Protein 1
Amino acid sequence: MSTCEICGTQILDHGENIYVEGNLIRVCKSCSKRGKPSKSQPEIQRKPAMRPKKTERLDRITFDDSSILVNNFFEVIRNSRMANGLSHEQLGLLIKERASLLRKIESGSLKPDEVLSKKLERFFRINLYTEVDSSDNE
Ligand SMILES: [Zn+2]
C-alpha cells in the first residue's frame, strides 16, 4: 500500500500513475486529475525547430522576390553618372557613399544593396529593379 504523493492520503485502491511536470508519481484518484495519465508519454521537451536564417522573412523590407536587380545595373548606373558629368567622388559625395564602393558597383563586381539602389534610383530617376516576370518579353 502506498500513499498519494500529492496529498499524502493512503491509496486504498490501485491509485493512479500520473505525470506531473515530467515525473511519474503515484497519487490517489482525486489527485490524478491534476496530472496527465501515465498512458500518455511525458511531454518531450521540444526545442523550437531551428530555421535557417536565410528563410527568415524580413517584413520591413518592401523588396520581395518579385523584384530583382537588372542585369546591367552597373551600366545603368555608370551611364547615368556619366550623363550627369559626375565623377565617382562627386557622386559619392552627393549620395553619401564611398567612391570606391561606386567603382566596384560600376565594374559589376559588387551589387548595390537595396538602400543604395533606392538612392541611385531616386538620384538618377532610373530603375535598377525589374519585376520577375514569367512571360518572356524578348
Ligand atoms: Zn491525493
Note: The radius of gyration is 33 Å.
Protein 2
Amino acid sequence: MVIYLSGEVDEEARLDEMSPRQIVTQLDKHVVGQHAAKRAVAIALRNRVRRQKLAPQLAADVMPKNIIMIGSTGVGKTEIARRLARMSNSPFLKVEASKFTEVGYVGRDVESMIRDLTEIAVELVRAEKLEEVADKAELNAEERILDLLLPPRASAGFYGFDPEETESTAATDSAPAPERDEQFQKTREKLRVQLREGKLDNRLVELEVREKSFPTIEVAGPQGIEEMGINMKDMLGNLFQGRTKRQRMRVDEALEYLLQEEEERLVDMDAVSRSALERVESTGIIFLDEIDKIAGREQGGGGPDVSREGVQRDILPIVEGTTVNTRYGMVRTDHILFIAAGAFHVSKPSDLIPELQGRFPIRVELESLTLEDFKRILTEPKNSLVRQYKALLETEGIELEFTADAIDAVARFAVRVNEQTEDIGARRLHTIMEKVLDHISFEGPDLEPKQQTLDAAYVTRTLEDIVRDQDLSRYVL
Ligand SMILES: Nc1ncnc2c1ncn2[C@@H]1O[C@H](COP(=O)(O)OP(=O)(O)OP(=O)(O)O)[C@@H](O)[C@H]1O
Ligand SMILES: [Mg+2]
C-alpha cells in the first residue's frame, strides 16, 4: 500500500537538519509516551546524516544504521513513522513487507518500492514548484483570457498581425496591445477588473484544448516492462497528446483550464525529476511494516508463499545500497532510511537472516499502553480523538464537552475491553469513543440542547451492558 503524505510541514527546518532532541520534541506533540522509540528514530535519522558526511571510501564501509521497532498492535509504531514523515519534507513510503510474499504478487520485485518512493518524491517536488509559479501562472492565464475576450487581432490587425499566430502562442508572455491604441488598453483593463470580480464568469469563450480522450487500452504488459521502469500509459499519452480541438466553455472554466496549462508550462519537469531523485537519495524514508511476517528461515514445507527468506535476500541489496532504475533515472539507495516494524509475537528479530539483522542494528521495543497513556492519548495530541469529535459535531452546531471523569471512564473501559477480548492498543479508543458518541452522532442536527456535557455516568450508561457481556463486546467494540 502506498500512502502519500503531503503538505502540512510543522517545522520549517529540514528533518535532516534537526537535532535528535528537536525531533523527539516534535514527535511528543503527536505521540504519547514511547520515548525510547522516538529517541531511536531520531538517532537513526541522525546516523544517516553523519554517514552522508563521510568520505566515500569510508562511507562505503559503514553499514547503514536502520531501525526495527518492535511492539504489539496499536501502540504507535506506524504513528511515529507517519509523524516523522509529516514533520519533514522527506519522501515517505509505507509498504507491507509481507506483500512481497503474497500469491499473485509472486516475487513482485522489491525494487518497486524504490520506484514508488520516487513517484512520491516527484509529486512532492512538483507540488513545491507549482506553489512557486502559482502567481505567475495566474497572471498568464488572466492575460490569455483577456486575449480571448478582446482579441488583440481586432485592433491590431493593421499592424500586420498574422492571424495564425495570434492565438495562445503569441499572446502568452508579451502584452500584445500596442501603446498607441489607448482605447484598447483601457477596455482591456476594464475587462480585467470585471474578470477579477467574477462578473464575466458566465460568458462563453472558445479556446484550443488538448485532446484528452484517447482510447483506453488495458496494458497487461509482461513484468519486464515494469522492471525497466517504462510506463506504457505515459507512452500512449504522449502519442496522443499532440491533438487539439476547439471548445466553447464558460470564462471561469476556461480560466481554470488555462491556469493548469500555464502551471504545466512553467514547471520544468526535467528539473523536477532531477531534484526528486536527489531528494529520494538523500532524505527518502521507507517504512517496512510487518517485517516479522517475513522473518524465519527456510523450514521446508513451502506452500504458495514466495519463500520468506527469499524476500529477505531480495530486500538486502536495497537496504545495503544499490542502484535502481526508475523512469526518472537511476536512484542510489545507499542513504535511504529504512524503518522496519513488527509485532514479533511468533518470530523474533533474530529469525531474520544475519545479513539483514546487521543492517538494522537499532532495535527498540514499544511499551504497551497504560491507563494513564490512554487518558493522555484521548486529550493531549494536537488532533486527539476528543478534539476530533468536538470539531466534527461543531459543524452541526453542537458544543461537546467531556468532563475529566468521562475521559477517565473511557480509558478504563478501553483497558478492560483490551484485557477481556483482544489487545488492540490505542485503536480500542476509536471503537469505544464511537460507541459513546453513537446517540449524539445519530441525532446530530436534531439534538437538543446544543450544549452537551458528557460525564462518567453517561459513558458508563452507554458502555456498561456491552462490556459486561464479553461476547457482545467482541462484536460491538
Ligand atoms: N503512543 C500513542 N500516542 C498517540 N496515539 C497513539 C499512540 N499509539 C497509538 N495511537 C493511536 O492508535 C492508532 C493506531 O496506532 P498505530 O497505527 O501507530 O499502530 P501500530 O503500532 O502501527 O499497530 P500495527 O502493528 O497494528 O500496525 C493510531 O490512530 C494512533 O493515533
Ligand atoms: Mg502499523
Note: The domain at 15-122+273-365 is CATH 3.40.50.300 (Rossmann fold).
Protein 3
Amino acid sequence: MSKTHYNPYASTNSEEDGGEQAMCGTYFSEDGNETNDKESVTCKKCLNKLEKIDKWKDETEEHILNDMESFVSFCNENIKTQENESI
Ligand SMILES: [Zn+2]
C-alpha cells in the first residue's frame, strides 16, 4: 500500500513534485504521495514529525523574510550612498 507523506509545500499538481525524498527522509516509491493536508497523511514517520516539519517550515519562512529585510535595507543603504556621492 502506498503511503502519503506530509509536505507543507506539496503541490496539487503532481507534475510539479520534483523531490524524490519525503520530508521524513523516506525515498518515494513509484506510488508515493505527498500532501499538505495533515488529515490525509498515512506515513507514520511523517505523522510523528508533523510538528517538527511545521516548525522547520516556519523557521525557514522566517529566515527568508529576514533575508529579504536585510536585502532591502542593504539596497536602501546603497541608494543613499550614491545620492550623497552625486551631490
Ligand atoms: Zn513520510
Note: The pocket of zinc ion is lined by residues 5, 22, 24, 26, 43, 45-46 (CB under 6 Å).
